[in-house]
Design brief:
InterPro entries: DUF72, UPF0759_sf. With 247 residues, the chain is an alpha/beta fold. It has one domain: Alpha-Beta Barrel (TIM Barrel). It is built from ten helices and eight strands. The chain has an eight-stranded parallel sheet with strand order 1-8-7-6-5-4-3-2. It starts with a strand and ends with a helix.
Length: 247
Amino acid sequence: MRLGTSGWSYPHWRRLLYPEGLAQTRWLPRYAEVFTTVELNATFYRLPTEKAVDRWREQTPRGFLFACKGSRYLTHTRKLRDVGQGLERFFAPLRRLGPKLGPVLWQLPPNWKTANPVRLERFLQALPSDVRHVFEFRAIAWYDEPILELLDRYGAAICEHDLLPELPPHSTGDFRYLRFHGTSARYGGRYGKEAMEEVALELRDTGRDAYVFFNNDRKGAALLDALDLSELLGEPLPHAEEVREEA
């Protein structure tokens, strides 16, 4: 089980996670003292430089994993078509993470409301098989059983998230991937310990690897919800009390 947040570079996390006076260049090492994984949303918008990727790798301990969001050029512009060269360009810098490269999250656009299993399968066939892949659908039509069967056949997970009114009918692949985007507004609002109790119970019974990311970064809600869930799972995160004291 790995718990983390979507990103770490938030000025409003000063004091809460990052001590006063700690240089921003040292925020990732501090984050990695508490969490064993982070979700990189920046890779959705642009390719990181080799220098940036090398720094991420060097600033985190052995066993740390970076979950990387797939390029929007491939998912939103190309809509999974003719992606060979685009995939090569996307993975070239990320391969420098070595064993710290975790799952890659492919988020499809919300306006793509008709499922296309043929195009999805071609994309799945083009993906590197030595990397775990996750698909976050933003339209209910993609929760169709033939789509889920495709993901399962290729070992890809379906992202379980709360931006749609219902969850996927069941998980796929050999691992689970959960994203919590916020309660009161996107990226805001705490879930609280009571809401996390059901999540913890269900995760304990899953029998699979699981990645859980909180994207409700405003006011540090993501940090506090992650701490709550870790305690409910019986695996409290390091430095939890320090974070709570500053909340």
